[in-house]
User: What shape does this take?
Amino acid sequence: MFVEELEAAVAGVRRLLASRHLESVDGDEARRVAGCFAEVERLGASGVALMAPRVVAAGSYAKVGHGTAAEWLGSIAGTSPAAARRCLKAATSAVECTEMRRALKGGEVSASQLEILASAEAAAPGAVRRLMPMVADASLRELADEAARLRAIARGSQGARARRDRVHRFRHLSWRQDPGGGVRGEFLCDEVAWARVAPGLDQRAAQLRRDAHRAGSTESFGAYRLDAWLDIMGGHGSGKARPHTLLLVDADSLRRGRTGPGGTCEVDGIGPVSVDAARELIGEGSLQILVRDGVDIRTVTKTSRAIPQRVEMALVVRDRVCVVPGCGEVAGLQADHCDVDYGKGGPTELDNLARLCVPHHDLKTHGGWKLKGGPGKWAWIAPARPRSAGYIARARRLAAIKGKAQRSGP
Ligand SMILES: [Zn+2]
Assistant: This one.
C-alpha cells in the first residue's frame, strides 16, 4: 500500500516534469519550480539513505541479481560504484544516529550534507548534534570546515589504540584509470606498517634522485618515490617470476601505430592504452600479448608462464568486462561455464564460457542465477526463488568447507 502511494507520487512528479508548461514559465516561476525540484532531490536522497541500510542488512539487492550493494545502488541512482559506496557508508552511519534519522525523516539534508555529517559522526560521536543547527543556513564549505574541526578534536581525545584500530578497519589500496590518462591510486594504512616499508622506499627514491640529478634532472622527490615504489612492486631483482600482464591489441592498430574506430589496445584489468605504451610493454618479458587479426587471435610473444589455452585467450578478447548487463567490472574476472545449449553438435568450448566478476560468479554458483543468450545479447536470468546476499555468502562458505574436506579426505 505504502509503496503504491509513493509510486503514484513519483508518477505525479514525472508527469509535471514532462509537462509542456515548463517551456513557457517566466523567470520567477522557473525559480520556484527549480526550488521545488531541489526539494524533491533532497527528499529523494533522504529516502534512499533511510532505506539503503535495510537493503544491505537484508541482502535483498542479490534478489534482483546485483552482486554487491554498491552495484545495486549505483544502478538505481545512476552513479559510479565509488560514489554509491560513499553514499552507502554515509547512510549506514546516519541511521544509527537518532538526530540524523530525524533530519532524514524531515527531508532536511542533501546527499552532500549527509556525507559530511555521517563521516563526522563516525569519527567524532556526537558531532551531528553540534552540526545539525548549521544544516539549514550554512554553506557546504562551512559545514565541512566545522566537521573537520570536530573530527580533529575527537582525534585528540581518542585513545591511541582505538585510533589505530579504526585505521586498520578502513585500510585499503585502490586504483583506477584516470579519465585524463594514467593510473591514480590511494591508500590508507597503519603508521607502524608503513614505517616498516617507508625507509626502504625513500632510500631507493633518494638513490634514483641522486642518479637523475647527476644527469641534470630536477624532478620532485615524490616523483622518484613513485619510481622507487614501481621498481619494488615490479619485483626487479627479486628473482621471483611475476604474474603476467595481458595486453590485447589488434593487428591493424599495431601496424598504424594508433587505434582507429573499432580498434583495441588494452591492458587487461586496467583499461585502454596508446599503441606507443603497448609497444613499450611488448619490449619486456613476462607479458602476454594477444594480437587480434580480423577474427583470428594469434599469440605473438611467449610469456614467463605457461601459455594459456587458445580458447581462454579468445574469451579474454571477447569478454572485456563482466558479461552481466550493466555491471562493467574489469578487475578480477573469472571464466565460467555458462551451459549454453547450442542444439545439434553441442556447444563449442568458447560458446560455453563467459567472464564474470566475483560477486556475479557467486550469484550464479550459489544463488541459482543463470546466463542466457550469448555475446552481445547476454541476459541475467533470476531463479524461481531469488536468494538474499546473506544466503549466498553462507552457501559459498559451506561449499568452501565441503571442497576442503573432499580434498583432504581419504
Ligand atoms: Zn559483474
Q: What stands out?
A: The chain has 16 helices and eleven strands.
